[in-house]
Design brief:
about 750 residues; alpha/beta; eight-stranded mixed β-sheet; eight-stranded parallel β-sheet; elongated; binds phosphoenolpyruvate; binds magnesium ion
Length: about 750
């Protein structure tokens, strides 16, 4: 009897030699199929490759009519080969002609072969082709033969993925893997980026396929599995909030998988067939992914992504790879693709190499997007399917304006985008010129254009954007990108750096706005909430945990010694919260002055207007604070009862609709009536059309992302404010409008050539 393990081993060894020989791709394929046929004692071995037009083309054969190579073809789903490709499952038949899907291709002369074994050529769960062996006699292929053919198919997948076969394709009939594809998601940050794909959670590409010593390789796998299991146990033992609830469930599943005997057995089997441990993980994972891809049960599919993650962890263990290595090998024009990503993870990448970010999930207001915006990178979000269709190093275009991406774009599209990038650069030049002009309307009314910030990476933008100051400094970002609570000194240092960078321009710091969806994994006190947006967050949380607030206030007071401190409170619901916060601040001021600390020259306390309850006590609010800042992201969410992070609803309600504009007008009027400065710092301030509306409603100070300052200023300097005020007088309170307010505002701007 033949040694079942040595058959595949000999074949893999032979393939390794073939891969290293300087052969033309066709010659290499021909030799591969010949060797497979001889090793498996099959009369036929054929390789079909999937083209971008969903046709499987015969690329090489031993045994079938050689003139049919590159001519014989089957559609996806057609015949046995098409069925294997469509289902991503092997077919093992002793009498192929009897199978209902059998399709006879006369050009191949295959009618005399009865038994048939075909396996999909898979990579990362995607089918790239089909590998077939056939025999004249009626026989059932053994399990180990199926395994051997699948392993061989992996080597071929590698050849296809590395572009080795590209030279065999005819123009217009490219391989599926290299097919240009476009996806449309949502625009999360404007801008256009041309570059090359970097998968944030790379499906680690295993290039070292063949092992030298199976037993040593099994031991290596064993050691890595051991460390993997330990690290999972370790995570489970930590009683951090980050590992409770959903997350805990995932980890429990990981633990179960990591101990799954079936999984481990399949891995060992693949190694004994000659693969390295890494290649074995990839093979087993790829087979499993392909099978699961056709499952519709959402629970199982979800578990699949856990399994993927686990396999990736195991690969990293095996390869001893850390995140630093990834950063070092980054191309200079990297476009990151991720399912989702934390803000801290984005900051791990060097800014100067990033040209764009693509997320399969996420929302425009999620923190990674806020950070990406601060870094000035174009972002497309909700781009479903991007991860599985992209390969590291693929050319890609991110159109942040449209929320689309183009993978492996054709040259004319690339040229068009390159032109777009040049056009944008020219426009940036215009915005730079505008910085020198005063920030006034066409009829001379001054409006302060401020920027939002939250991290040290934002600070250079203060000069680059020409902002008049920082209207919102989100202090929680420092907390969110850290792995433990930032110490008092680190907080003070950041605040000092911000003020130094501002060089006398005003800066408004907001006390930490965490809780709800902004979770700090290391914060032990967090609770599971059914409605986090309405829950224990922002000022509610910091008043209940005064230690946190006191430390921050002390750091701010110290950092602002000899300068002005402008401080505002997020998510105020009742005026008593302002009074309580003021007490804490006063106590800190007294404490510091007792120790002869250098205190701020003045302290201005403001409230964010984000909760509708304040709308019904506007005059009292204006009197209770030194200034008010409208947080339009939250205010809109609460006024309209629409979750700001729910992408399903993202475009459903218009933030320039009459009711919301009336709310904003009420606020601006109350500010003017009480001589209390009012500003607005939500995303609304950053779009020229909504910024125009705000100014028309009476806002004289708005704060936005730095990239928006140029376009908003271009609008501002062309805006005849008096006319816009007249427009609002005529339209805002009118009982019935013919057109939505957005359309009316657009027409107003178009008629006057105001650039929006
Ligand atoms: C807002 O709600 O509009 C705001 C500026 O705060 P954040 O986006 O940080 O919640
Ligand atoms: Mg808010």
């Amino acid at each position: 009897m033949r040694d079942t393990a040595s058959g595949p081993r000999v074949l893999l060894k032979r393939l390794r030699e073939l891969m290293q020989e300087p052969l033309e791709p066709q010659e290499r394929l021909d030799r591969i199929v010949r060797d497979i046929a001889s090793n498996m004692v099959a009369e036929v071995c054929s390789l079909y490759v999937l083209r971008a037009d969903s046709v499987l083309e015969l690329y090489a054969t031993e045994g079938l009519n050689p003139t049919s190579v590159h001519l014989a073809q089957l559609r996806l789903g057609q015949g046995l080969v098409g069925t294997i490709a469509a289902s991503a499952r092997p077919l093992n038949l002793s009498n192929a002609q009897e199978h209902p899907a059998f399709a006879y291709l006369p050009e191949t002369g295959e009618e005399i072969y009865h038994s048939f074994l075909g396996v999909p050529v898979l990579r990362a769960g995607r089918t790239l082709g089909v590998l077939v062996v056939q025999n004249k006699t009626m026989r059932q292929y053994r399990e180990d033969e199926i395994e051997a053919l699948e392993t061989t198919a992996m080597v071929i997948a590698e050849m296809i993925a590395t572009g080795d076969l590209a030279r065999l394709t005819k123009p217009g009939l490219e391989l599926d893997l290299r097919r240009p594809v476009s996806f449309t998601g949502l625009s999360f940050n404007d801008g256009v980026g041309l570059g090359h794909v970097v998968l944030h959670e790379p499906r680690i590409v295993v290039t070292n396929l063949f092992n030298e010593d199976s037993e040593e390789e099994v031991r290596r796998l064993d050691r890595s599995l051991g460390s993997l299991r330990l690290s999972i146990d370790d995570m489970l033992e930590r009683r951090d909030v980050a590992f409770e609830g959903e997350h805990r469930e995932v980890l429990e599943a990981y633990r179960m998988f990591a101990n799954d005997r079936g999984w481990v057995r399949r891995l060992e089997e693949a190694i004994r067939n000659g693969l390295t441990a890494e290649a074995a993980v990839e093979k087993v994972q790829s087979d499993m992914r392909a099978r699961m891809l056709h499952m519709t049960d959402p629970y199982l599919r979800e578990r699949m992504s856990d399994f993927d993650d686990l396999a990736n962890r195991l690969l990293r263990q095996l390869m001893g790879r850390g995140p630093e290595d990834v950063a070092a090998s980054l191309p200079k024009d990297a476009i990151l693709i991720a399912r989702s990503m934390g803000a801290a993870e984005l900051l791990d990448y060097p800014r100067d190499k990033l040209r764009g970010l693509v997320l399969e999930d996420g929302a425009a207001t999620s923190h990674v997007v806020i950070v990406a915006r601060a870094m000035g990178i174009p972002v497309a979000g909700q781009v479903k399917g991007a991860v599985s269709m992209a390969e590291n190093g693929d050319a890609i275009i991110v159109d942040g304006e449209e929320g689309t991406i183009h993978l492996r774009p054709q040259s004319d599209l690339e040229a068009a985008y390159a032109e777009k990038v040049r056009f944008r650069a020219r426009r940036q030049e215009v915005y730079r010129e505008l910085r020198k002009k005063p920030s006034v309307t066409k009829d001379g009314v001054a409006v302060d254009l401020l920027m939002n910030a939250g991290l040290a990476v934002d600070l250079p933008q203060l000069t680059e954007s020409g902002a008049a100051g920082i209207g919102l400094f989100r202090t929680e970002l420092q907390f969110m990108v850290a792995s433990t609570f930032p110490r008092a000194e680190a907080q003070e240092r950041l605040y000092r750096d911000v003020l130094d960078a501002a060089r006398g321009k005003p800066v408004t710091f907001r006390t930490i706005d965490i809780g709800g969806d902004k979770v700090l994994p290391y914060f032990k006190g967090a609770i599971q909430e059914e409605n986090p947006a309405l829950g224990w967050r922002a000022i509610r949380l910091t008043l209940d945990r005064p230690g946190l607030l006191r430390t921050q206030i002390r750091a701010l007071l110290k950092a602002c010694g000899g300068r002005e401190l402008k401080l505002m409170l997020p998510m105020v619901t009742e005026l008593s919260e302002i009074a309580q916060a003021r007490e804490i601040i006063d106590r800190e001021v007294r404490h510091l002055s007792r120790f002869a600390h250098h205190l701020p020259t003045s302290l201005k306390l403001g409230a964010m207007l984000e909760v509708p309850s304040l709308l019904f006590q506007l005059d009292e609010l204006m009197k209770a604070v030194d200034f008010v800042s409208v947080g339009s992201n939250d205010l809109f969410q609460f006024v309209m009862a629409v979750d700001r992070g729910n992408t399903q609803l993202a475009d459903r309600f218009d933030n320039l609709s009459t009711p919301f504009l009336r709310v904003l007008k009420m606020i601006a009027d109350a500010g003017a009536r009480n001589h209390t400065p009012v500003t607005l710092c939500g995303e609304l301030a950053g779009k020229p059309i909504s910024a125009m509306a705000l100014i028309g409603l009476g806002f004289r100070s708005i704060s936005m992302s730095p990239a928006s300052i140029g376009p908003v200023k271009a609008m501002l300097t062309e805006l005849p404010l008096q006319e816009l005020e007249g427009f609002f007088n005529d339209n805002l309170m009118a009982p019935s409008q013919k057109l939505p307010m957005r359309a009316l505002l657009q027409a107003f701007a178009d008629d006057r050539s105001i650039p929006l």
